[in-house]
Amino acid sequence: MNQLTEAIPIKGFLETSFLDWPGRIASVIFLPFCNFRCPYCQNTSLVLNPQLLKDIPLNQVLKRLKELKEWIDGVCITGGEPTIHKSLIEFIREFKNRNIPVKLDTNGSNPQMIATLLAERLVDCIAMDVKAPLNNDSYARLTGVTANLKNIKKSIELIRNSTIETIFRITVVPGMLTEEDIYQVAKELYPVKKFILQQFSPENPLNPELKKVVPWPQEKIERVQKKVNQIVGGNQESL
What we know:
Layout: H1 3-6, E1 12-17, E2 26-30, H2 44-48, H3 58-67, E3 74-78, H4 88-96, E4 102-106, H5 111-119, E5 125-129, H6 136-143, H7 149-160, E6 165-172, H8 179-189, E7 195-199, H9 218-232
Parallel strand pairs: 2-3, 3-4, 4-5, 5-6, 6-7
Antiparallel strand pairs: 1-2
């Protein structure tokens, strides 16, 4: 372990999750800071006030992962936005050197980091959150910043063309995204293996106004997901 790996503060550690890596039991590591300000973000403290959260030493996490090795199938590194940390490569190596499979969650804003991780075979799965249709107005509305769409598109291309497990996701925020918006994103992503709709939660959004928003009924999520699966798989007849 070196100073570079210690330079990334760990702000949260969930020992076991059945949700964060589909099909696996994974531990989850939360890294601080983000370059987006998505109004529906659930990890507000990680984004806005990470200094108020206690640091968890990396060696403590590695020790616990060793104790859990018979029970978990890998580790999920999430945030915040992990790829804004310059020493993420060295950080992830600490897990790969111990033969721990790694899943990375990202917003796709740093294709250079994603390219390096893929080239050096440091991740076993990447999940990218695509926030909105790939136009400046939509992305600004859903991210709260002026995002570099060229970088977003490059990350999509890198992940789509990789040989590892890949997942694309979108959080369905009523009033901010329409059903047609989601179909548009699916068309822009085509062809991909997995594009998953995530349910919006009004419990603790970055923008308190969204606490008033009622999430889509589960039946609607399932109906739209079915159409999305057809689109990303190449069948658009239902539209």
